[in-house]
Structure formats: C-alpha cells, structure tokens
Specification:
Layout lengths: L2 H9 L8 E2 L6 E2 L29 H12 L10 H4 L5 H11 L9 E10 L2 E10 L6 E7 L13 H11 L2 E6 L10 H16 L5 E11 L1 H15 L8 E4 L10 H5 L8 H11 L24 E8 L3 H13 L4 E10 L10 H18 L1
Parallel strand pairs: 5-6, 5-7, 7-8, 8-9, 9-10
Antiparallel strand pairs: 1-2, 3-4, 4-6
Helix pairs in contact: 1-4, 2-4, 5-11, 6-7
Pfam families: Abhydrolase_3
Keywords: Hydrolase
Protein name: Alpha/beta hydrolase
C-alpha cells in the first residue's frame, strides 16, 4: 500500500474518523479510544489570506486546503495517471491536521473484511464494513468512491464508507471498481453494477438483508451510484430503496455557472475535470452518453434520492441540475448545499463541521429508507 494511504487510513476513518483498514487483512484497528467530540475543531485556523478562488471558504476548510498546498505537489492535470496517484490527497491533509492539533481519534464501531467479485474480464475487490452490534442481519449500503474514474481507492475514501456503516448501522460494501486509463468507459460503470448485483445475490453471506439495499457515491462515485439504480431498473432486478449522491458528476458541459466561478478551485478545478474526462472516455463524444451526462438519461422510476452539494465546487451545478431533472421525472428528491466548503469536504467530519452535518443528514435519509 502507498505510504500516504497507510497514513491516511490510520487517521481518517469513520464519521468521526476513527480507524485504519489494512488492504492486506482489512482488520479495523483502534487508534485512540478517546472521544473526538471533546475536541473543538473550530480551533483550526488558516494561516494565510482567503483564497481568490473561494472567498466564502470556512476557516476549517481553508486550513485543510492550506495543508494540502503545503506538500508542493504538481497539479494533477499536468501529470500522468500513475504520477497523479502518488500525489498527496485531501485526506492526507486532514490526517496531518489531526496529528498536529492532537485531535483524538475514536475507536472503530465496525469490523472490516474483504471480498472479491467476478466481473467481465476479471475480478474487483470490495471492502465490507459490518457494525459490531452483533445482529444477525443488517441493511446494506453499496458505496462508490470518487476520483474522476482515474485516481483514489478504498483507503482514500475509507472515512466516508465507515461513517455510513457506523451512523446507519448498516453493512457497507465499498467497491474498488477498475480505474482508467487502464480500463476505459464504460468499465467502471459495468463494475459498479456487477458489484451491486453481487450484493443482491449474496446479501446473506455478509449479514445483509437483500430486501433493504441503498447506494451511495461521491463525485464520480455519485455518477456510478445513479447509474446502478438506472441499470437495476432496466434489467429488472431489485432497485435500491434510496440513493445518496454527493456532488455527483451529472453532465458534460464545463461552462456552467459553477464551473466558471470555481474554475480554479481546490482540490477540484475545471482543468482536472477535463483531465479525468480525457483519461476515462474513449473519445470526447462519449461525454454526451447518458451514463456520463445523467441529466439526459431516463430518470423515471428511480429511487428516492438525496443530493449533497458543496458551494465552492465546479460540480455544484451538476448536483442541482440533476436534482431538478429527477424531480421533473417524478422522483422524490431531498437536496442540501453546504456553504463555505469545497469538493471532497464530505469525508472530513473530524475537522470540518459541515462534513459532520452532511454525514448526519445522509445517515438520517438512509435510516428512514432502510428501516
């Protein structure tokens, strides 16, 4: 495992960010039994001026972005995918802030195991988070991480997946779909559905209730989660009871108001989105495919949907446009925007108050759907 991912995995798991999950044995390890609730994360203060690209940024969010900038990595859009995967991530920045500010990291409330899933052309891995409450059966959430279909992995997004399991008391299956450019469109989309189909058929083997399944995804993963619901509908297998889409990629026009206003934002900017698109798609005409441009897909009959957006994010308008299109198609939609935060804020609950609020909001929606 990449050293950066090991460090992040130790520091940034769960809603309150709690444990590490080794890829080798995927056994949760306690870092610090003390409660993080006693720590006032609002004490985190930025050291520099408010950035030009985000004048409304909250101080805790700015502190994370300053830490990320301090590593001096080259911009992702100037790198090869192999090089980009070695860059520090926002999760590394959170981890360092946790250490530097002596923020307590609570013990895990879940156990983790790994499963391998057969897909067209090979196998993919998934990490299964099971609450430690000892029940015979739990609802299931299938989770898809972000990274533009090109970078990141289960470790980078461990905090989000484990937070879901701990807050909803559900089994969470976090899917390591294959990445581009080694695996071009629609590989990630097909892997995402294959993993969902595996969960439906094998729920009992992971202490899951096959009648109570939801999907959740962030960014590129939000796009995948919505596509899973569409494919389930079209293939006439069980449709998820709910979907939570966190700042999803939902359309291909990079000249929306939020793309224009936050073209230079961090940690995601317009140039990075162009880079992701180039590496995932076989050609740029595929950007109009309804699997990429969800706002042009048939959205009728999809499950009730929760959409979470960030103010300082090129993808902000993707989320609002998709919410409008879903509502127009007769889908029940609840959406919430969080001011003063950037793309990738959702997994930062241990240092960013808005992330804690957003995770609690998503958990509330999921528990209501899966009860």
């Amino acid at each position: 495992m990449n050293n950066k991912l090991i460090k992040w995995s130790i520091a940034a798991c769960a809603l309150t960010v709690a444990v590490s999950c080794s890829k080798k044995n995927e056994t949760a390890q306690s870092v610090d039994p003390k409660s993080a609730d006693s720590v006032n994360v609002s004490q985190l203060k930025p050291t520099g001026a408010t950035p030009e690209w985000g004048k409304t940024i909250k101080p805790e969010m700015q502190a994370v972005m300053e830490k990320l900038a301090s590593y001096g990595d080259k911009p992702i859009e100037t790198l090869t995918p192999e090089e980009a995967r070695k860059n520090h991530t926002p999760t590394d920045a959170v981890m360092d802030l946790v250490k530097e500010n002596n923020i307590a990291v609570p013990a895990p409330k879940v156990d983790t195991t790994g499963v391998n899933i057969n897909v067209a052309g090979g196998k993919i891995h998934a990490r299964v988070y099971t609450p430690k409450t000892g029940k015979a059966s739990y609802p299931i959430i299938v989770y898809y991480h972000g990274g533009g279909f090109v970078i990141a992995d289960l470790d980078v997004y461990n905090a989000s997946a484990q937070g879901l399991a701990e807050q909803t008391e559900a089994v969470v299956v976090s899917v390591a779909y294959r990445l581009a450019p080694e695996n071009k469109f629609p590989t990630a989309h097909n892997d995402a559905f294959a993993a969902y189909e595996w969960v439906v058929k094998n729920a009992a083997t992971i202490k899951g209730d096959a009648k109570k399944i939801a999907v959740v995804g962030e960014s590129a993963g939000g796009n995948l989660a919505a596509n899973v619901s569409i494919m389930a509908r079209d293939k006439k297998i069980m449709i998820p009871l709910h979907q939570v889409l966190v700042y999803p990629i939902a359309q291909s026009d990079m000249n929306t108001a939020s793309y224009t206003k936050y073209a230079g934002a961090k940690p995601l900017n317009k140039a990075m989105m162009e880079w992701f698109t180039k590496h995932y798609l076989n050609n740029m005409n595929e950007a109009k495919d309804p699997r990429i441009s969800l706002i042009n897909a048939n959205l009728a009959g999809l499950p009730p949907t929760t959409i979470i957006t960030a103010e300082i994010d090129p993808l902000h308008d993707d989320g609002t446009m998709l919410a409008d299109k879903l509502s127009a198609a007769g889908v029940k939609v609840n959406s919430k925007n969080y001011d003063g935060v950037t793309h990738e804020f959702y997994g930062m609950a241990i240092v960013v108050p808005q992330a804690k609020e957003a995770q609690a909001y998503a958990a509330e929606q999921l528990k209501a759907a899966l009860k």
